[in-house]
Each structure stands twice: as C-alpha cells, then as structure tokens.
C-alpha cells in the first residue's frame, strides 16, 4: 500500500508553517515532537502507520478556518481526524501533511425537543448524544459497535451504521445539517433543523465523503423517542447457511426488526468467553433479532420470527425476558471485535455489503477462501442489511501473514461485488479498499467522482491518497475531449 510521496516543497516549509500555526492555536495546541506525534500515527487500521508532519488541536470553528486558509495558501496537505476509530485508514497521516484533530470539539450545543433534534460538535461521541437526551425518553438511532468511543464527526465522514440501522437507517438518514469548513477557509452550512433542504442534496454528498471535501465543525442530528417495548431473540443454527436463509426469510415475510445480527462459531465462542452473555456454544451460527414497538406488536412478531427460525432448522431459541437480559444479549455482539482480539494476535476487519439473498452463498465461499489462504476467519455482521464484517485472523510477527490476510480480504471484497454488492457498507474506502475501487467502478465513474472533489478542493489538499487509486489533476478532469478536431455533441451549448 503506497501513499503519495512527500513533497519536498512542503517539507522545506515546516518551520515556517509551525510558527504560523502557533499564531493561530496558542499553548499546547500545536504538536511537533516525535514522541507526541506517535499518538496520531494510525487509526483503527493499525497495519499502516505514518507520523504526521505536525498535528494541531483547534478549539473553535474560527481556528479551523484559519488553519485551512493557511494550509491552502502554503499548499500544505491536511488530514482531518476525529477519535481515530476508523477501520479503513481514513485518518492515516501524511509525512508532509497537517493532522487536524477535532477532539476538543466535544460539546452538545443545543437540544431542541420540539423539533426532535440536537446540535452537537463533531467530537461528541455517538453514545454521548443518547446519554444527553435519554432522560427525556429519546435516543440517537445509529449505534456502531464502537459507539462508546467513535465521534459523530467521524460517523458523518464514513456514513456509519450499527446494529439498528436496518430499521432506523445509517448516519445519512439521521442527520439534518452540518457546519463545515472548506479548504480555502470558507465556513458553510448545509441543511439545518428543517426536514429537508431545497436544491441539490449537498448534505448527502458530504455524508460519507471521508474527509475529502471539507472539515465538519457542527452536526444537527435527529433524536427519536425510545420504543415502548424492545425484546431480543437468540436463535442458533447448525450451519451458517441456515442462519443466512433465516435472515432472508424474515425480511421476505415483511418483518423489519430493530436489529438483526449474526455471528459464526469462532465469534460466538470468543464473545461468550469475554462477556458471558449466555450464548449457546453448540451452534455454527447465532442470530440476535430485536423487535421493537408497542408490546402487542412485539409479542406477535416474536411468534412469527420464532416460527420462521424453526422452519429454517434453528436448534435453539431464547427470548429476552427483561431489559437487563436484552442488553446482555447485545453486550456480547457489541464486544465481539475486542473479544476476537483475545484469540488472535492481529486481525483485519473487512466491510463488504451484499444482497441478503446472497448470504448463504457468500458464507460458503468465504469458508473456501479461508482454506485457500490458510487463515481463520470469524464472522460478525449486520445480517439484516447484508453488511459483512469478516475478521481475518493473522499474526503480524509471522513473515508474509499480513500480505496473505490483505489478499484474503481483497478476495472477500471482490466476491461481494461479484454477487451484486459493494466494497463498503460503513467503514469507508480510506486506504484499505482504495486500490480495489476499479473492481466496482469504471475509469469514467472514478473520474466523475473526482470532478466532484475538484468542486470542493481543487488542489487536492484535503486527505489525499485516500479513496481514489489514481488521482488526476482537476485540469485534466475538466478538459473537453476533441476527436479529429471536433467536440462530441457540437449542438449542445457549452458553459
């Protein structure tokens, strides 16, 4: 995995840049010594590391604007960073770039109960939003497994999901507006507390843009009333294929659970050893299915779901009888990633998404790929929306294992695209999937996406080296194609 070569012109300006940054951010907000910079050398994708040239920790939108304006004038690259929980290398620093940390933007600015929304800074944790509103019976719906640590700014950058995104949507379905700073220092607002904005859906463009278009300094999110009743069912199956078939049949029956997660045997055992959630150990696949709504509706849906599970060969079914038991069911799933860390020195967490109907086939072929590459895989994923999170287990101390794990992961993502899926569901492209983008997109597709980036960041200074396998200059993307002295479609007006 290669990153853009450091530009000598930028490195030569380091001392001058540091002096100017200290004028903008006084005190300890500019970090330059190597030991302190180590804290920022990677994000959640720890296989790749790089010290930033300098890190800055602004506290106000005005400071962010001034930093970006300075970097734009000096032609210096900038990498925005939230909590650093990204699993795709989206916040991987650059040797000739400023790492812009937003950890000090950690305040809830406003809770508007009448409009059912909250205005928060990007450094507020995902779970922190729910904690701020739960005393009035509200919550923030998207809930990534890292919600205790990941921040809303990063959630917007990656369009994060979570166990409840099947029914309540991803981040893009739960934000109403953002304040963001462009690379030239201009502060803009998109959306707001109103339901929808007129004109182009620029908010939709920003959500999931991975820090390539601007730096988010404020987010307006929807908050929802907590459901009257929530109950969860554990269903164990003799094969992963049977569990996958059950997922497809539940959705086909017109039932949309609040959440529907699946784990295979290695993940079940790891989570049970870690959390002691009461998971059955004698099954190959475990579904956690949560139904929510009025009590009568939940009771009826539980009966229907249980009947479907039985018809698909479930060997065990258990329904939560209390709120504590429901939370315990989810505690095992939420802790599955760290739990797997106890059974392997290292792992790569993949993030492909497939059509639900392809789940049994993909699980079978994933097992074949495991044998091909000689590496174990533990599966933990959002089964309801087909968002797979295979954890490829390896030991970085063994020569060649990281490379094998990367190729195994690439094969899984190619498989996802082959069956009609996509390269990422919520972790983003970053550097992890960057070189696989041509598997899914044509050269014209990628060029069109880069034209959009040019509209926001014409000099490609924001988070370069991410998402696009080959970055074109905006001038190249904007020129017209002339063939034999003639433009295509000469009758169309040119602007």
From TrEMBL:
Protein name, UniProt field: FAD-linked oxidase C-terminal domain-containing protein
Nucleotide-binding listed as a keyword: no
One Pfam family here: FAD-oxidase_C
Record-linked InterPro entries: FAD-bd_oxidored_4_C (IPR004113), FAD-bd_PCMH (IPR016166), FAD-bd_PCMH-like_sf (IPR036318), FAD-bd_PCMH_sub2 (IPR016169), FAD-linked_Oxase-like_C (IPR016164), FAD-linked_OxidoTrans_Type4 (IPR051914), Oxid_FAD_bind_N (IPR006094), Vanillyl_alc_oxidase_C-sub2 (IPR016171)
Cofactor: FAD
Organism: Ferrovibrio xuzhouensis
Residues spanning the membrane: none
Residue span(s) of domain FAD-binding PCMH-type: 48-226
Domain of life: Bacteria
Keywords for this protein: FAD, Flavoprotein, Oxidoreductase
């Amino acid at each position: 995995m290669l990153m853009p070569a450091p530009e000598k012109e930028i490195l030569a300006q380091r001392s001058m840049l540091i002096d100017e940054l200290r004028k903008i951010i006084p005190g300890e907000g500019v970090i330059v010594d190597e030991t302190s910079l180590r804290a920022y050398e990677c994000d959640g994708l720890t296989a790749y590391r790089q010290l930033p040239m300098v890190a800055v920790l602004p506290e106000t939108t005005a400071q962010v604007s001034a930093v970006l304006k300075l970097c734009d004038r000096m032609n210096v690259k900038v990498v925005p960073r939230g909590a650093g929980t990204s699993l795709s290398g989206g916040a991987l620093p650059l040797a000739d770039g400023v790492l812009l940390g937003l950890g000090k933007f950690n305040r809830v600015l406003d809770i508007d109960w009448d409009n059912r929304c909250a205005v928060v800074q990007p450094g507020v944790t995902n779970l922190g939003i729910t904690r701020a509103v739960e005393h009035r019976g509200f919550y923030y719906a998207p809930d990534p497994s890292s919600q205790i640590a990941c921040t809303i700014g990063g959630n917007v950058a990656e369009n994060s999901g979570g166990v409840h995104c099947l029914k309540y949507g991803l981040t893009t379905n739960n934000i109403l507006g953002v304040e963001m700073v462009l690379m030239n220092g201009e502060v803009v607002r998109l959306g707001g507390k109103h339901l929808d904005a007129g004109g182009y859906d620029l908010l939709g463009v920003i959500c999931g843009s991975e820090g390539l278009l601007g730096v988010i300094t404020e987010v307006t999110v929807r908050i929802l009333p907590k459901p009257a009743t929530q109950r969860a069912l554990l269903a164990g199956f003799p094969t992963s294929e049977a569990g996958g078939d059950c997922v497809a049949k539940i959705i086909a029956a017109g039932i949309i659970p609040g959440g529907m997660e699946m784990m295979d045997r290695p993940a079940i055992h790891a989570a049970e050893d870690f959390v002691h959630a009461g998971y059955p150990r004698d099954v190959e696949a475990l579904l956690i299915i949560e139904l929510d709504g009025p009590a009568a509706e939940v009771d009826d849906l539980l009966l229907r779901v249980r009947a479907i599970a039985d018809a698909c060969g479930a060997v065990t079914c258990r329904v939560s009888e209390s709120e504590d038991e429901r939370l315990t069911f989810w505690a095992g799933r939420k802790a599955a990633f760290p739990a797997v860390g106890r059974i392997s020195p290292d792992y790569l967490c993949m993030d492909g998404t497939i059509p639900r109907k392809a789940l049994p086939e993909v699980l079978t072929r994933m097992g074949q790929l495991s044998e091909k590459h000689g590496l174990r895989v533990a599966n933990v994923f959002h089964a309801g929306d087909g968002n797979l999170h295979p954890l490829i287990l390896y030991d970085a101390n063994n020569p060649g294992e990281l490379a094998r794990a990367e190729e195994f992961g690439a094969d899984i993502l190619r498989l996802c695209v082959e069956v009609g899926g996509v390269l990422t569901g919520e972790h983003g492209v970053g550097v992890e999937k960057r070189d696989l983008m041509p598997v899914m997109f044509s050269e014209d597709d990628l060029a069109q996406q880069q034209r959009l980036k040019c509209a926001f960041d014409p000099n490609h200074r924001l988070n370069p080296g991410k998402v696009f396998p080959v970055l074109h200059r905006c001038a190249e993307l904007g020129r017209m194609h002339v063939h034999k002295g003639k433009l295509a479609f000469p009758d169309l007006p040119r602007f």
